[in-house]
Write a structure and sequence with these properties.
The protein is an alpha+beta fold. It contains 18 helices and 23 strands. The radius of gyration is 26 Å and the shape is globular. It binds adenosine-5'-triphosphate (ATP).
Length: about 500
């Protein structure tokens, strides 16, 4: 596809045209940064959630899953630090009146320097051909090293200033780097201010008696407050994990890039409770395990990378992101955080309840340390969807749009067609669907010529098309067509289900 910006536009329009994602309340012109998942989108999202849940909960005997409420006791957010510290630094441009996240402006500036590095690499690649060693080039070329050093200095300074709440220095950095408003080009900035991202709401009937609540900004706290309940009732022994998926809400200052940054989104989080002192071992374990999970989906190992945090959140002693190459560049897809005993300790203090584990081997009680894996379901959706959408030129020079979703995640697993709408073929096709629908989401389609139907299913991401023709009436066989290779094979009706199960089994994908 032409360039990244064009590709991203195509992703957004394709998501709408093929029933994946609509803007929220579109008939009223939509609500900014809020989206609805349509008939295919809801399925894809559910399948990603299921793929995560199975790998985390079913494949680990020491991890269980819960489903905590979105509304929580307001003290939760005092204890977790969100009331005092869940802020983004924002800055306004006085001329354009546009509001930005100060840290994002600086990060975008660094991303531009990174593009220069990529250009140098590409140039050298051309020059040296097969003999080119990228690692070596990046670690020795003076120009590249200079760019990298510049990025490091900027990000380190920003990290320190944010950690020390030195917002004046963040502004100074923006001015020194001469960062301009991306829309108006103006460099006329206000001071940097902190802005709390939590959505407030009220519980109760009358204004006088109502309690102030927050919509949860992360699902993790629902796990922490249930730590003792789950540990006791599940007879869990350290190390063990609690997993959860569910909605989270953040009043993002700049919400853009489609479903990458939303105000209402879904998280898939797992808190892993470990012995104090062993957290780094588990932190490394989960970094690797999570990266392997991503790779299992076949989107290309080169599209993932780790980014270790310079600036640590108030609760963490180590943190890394798994970044994915979105159409707009490498960005955070998942976070792995070593959260120490910060959360459980804080909840102990605020609730007066013990949140500890008696370790029979050590013969002592302690507050466990926590390693968290936290991924945005919507971001994962965007990663898979944008990478799967491809424009292919075929042997005869024609092109096709194909959505090469991993078959395990595809919303519809097969479309069943009668070749023509008569001679009893539709009846046979419907019978096949009746058998398959116990195990798979399958659809019937009889409109248009078969070639056109194939193209429609390619673009919708359906991995198999099954065609019933006149030969089927004689020998009970059908053609099954594979989306990615466009190969067709003739198989007996009785073998369809087996064939599909082979390609769409969790074991095949997850193992
Ligand atoms: P960012 O730096 O992009 O704002 P974050 O570091 O605040 O993200 P975390 O608090 O670590 O994000 O949340 C864990 C995951 O939740 C992220 O890796 C991301 O996939 C997802 N996520 C966070 N905020 C949003 C959002 N506004 N919209 C969609 N997904 C989000």
């Amino acid at each position: 596809m032409a360039n990244n910006e064009d590709h991203f536009k195509k992703v957004i329009s394709h998501a709408k045209e093929y029933g994946y994602i609509f803007g929220s309340s579109e008939i009223y012109d939509g609500l900014s940064a809020v989206y609805d998942y349509a008939q295919n989108g809801a399925e894809l999202k559910k399948n990603i959630r299921e793929y995560w849940w199975r790998s985390m909960v079913y494949m680990h005997q020491n991890i269980v899953g819960i489903d905590a409420a979105i509304l929580m006791h307001p003290t939760t957010w005092k204890a977790s630090g969100h009331v005092d510290a869940f802020n983004d630094p924002l800055i306004d441009n006085k001329d354009s009146k546009k509001r930005y996240r100060a840290d994002v402006l600086i990060e975008d500036y660094c991303a531009k320097i990174e593009t220069k590095i990529e250009k140098e690499v590409k140039k050298a690649q051309k020059r040296f051909g097969d003999a080119f060693n990228k690692e070596e080039f990046i670690s020795t070329n003076p120009r590249v090293l200079g760019y990298q050093e510049k990025i490091n200095v900027i990000l380190q300074r920003m990290g320190k200033s944010l950690e020390n709440e030195d917002l004046a220095d963040v502004k100074a950095l923006i001015e020194e780097l001469e960062i301009a408003d991306p829309i108006s080009g103006s460099k006329n900035w206000t001071d940097v201010k902190q802005f709390n991202l939590m959505f407030g709401t009220k519980l109760g009937a009358s204004a006088e008696t109502a309690t102030d609540l927050y919509l949860r900004p992360e699902t993790a706290q629902g796990i922490f407050v249930n730590f003792a309940n789950v540990q006791k009732t599940g007879r869990m022994k350290i190390p063990f994990g609690i997993a959860q998926t569910g909605k989270a809400f953040r009043n993002e200052i700049v919400a853009r890039q489609f479903i990458f940054r939303m105000r209402e989104f879904e998280q898939m989080e797992m808190q892993f409770f470990v012995r104090p002192g062993e957290e780094m071992k588990w932190y490394e374990y989960w970094k690797e395990t999570r990266l392997n999970w991503h790779k299992s989906l076949g989107m290309g190992a080169e599209n993932y990378r780790f980014h270790d945090h310079e600036k640590l959140a108030h609760y963490a002693n180590a943190a890394a992101d798994i970044e994915f190459k979105f159409p707009f560049g490498f960005k955070e897809l998942e976070g792995i955080h070593s959260r120490t005993d910060f959360d459980l300790k804080a909840h102990e203090e605020h609730s007066g309840k013990k949140l500890q584990f008696f370790d029979p081997q050590m013969n002592e009680s302690y507050v466990p340390y926590v390693v968290e894996t936290s991924i945005g379901l919507d971001r994962m959706f965007l990663a898979i969807f944008s990478k799967s959408l491809q424009e292919e030129t075929l042997g005869d020079g024609s092109t096709r749009t194909v959505l090469k979703l991993p078959s395990i995640l595809a919303p519809v697993k097969a479309a069943v067609f009668p070749l023509v709408k008569k001679d009893g073929l539709p009846e046979v096709a419907r019978k096949i669907i009746e058998n398959l629908q116990w195990d798979f989401n399958v659809i019937y389609d009889e409109k248009d010529a078969v070639g056109k139907r194939y193209r429609r299913q390619d673009a919708a991401g359906t991995p198999f098309c099954i065609t019933v023709d006149h030969q089927t009436l004689e020998d009970q066989t059908v053609t099954i067509r594979h989306r990615d290779t466009m190969e067709q094979e003739r198989i007996p009706i009785s073998g369809i289900s087996e064939k599909m199960k082979d390609s769409i089994s969790y074991q095949k994908w997850l193992a």
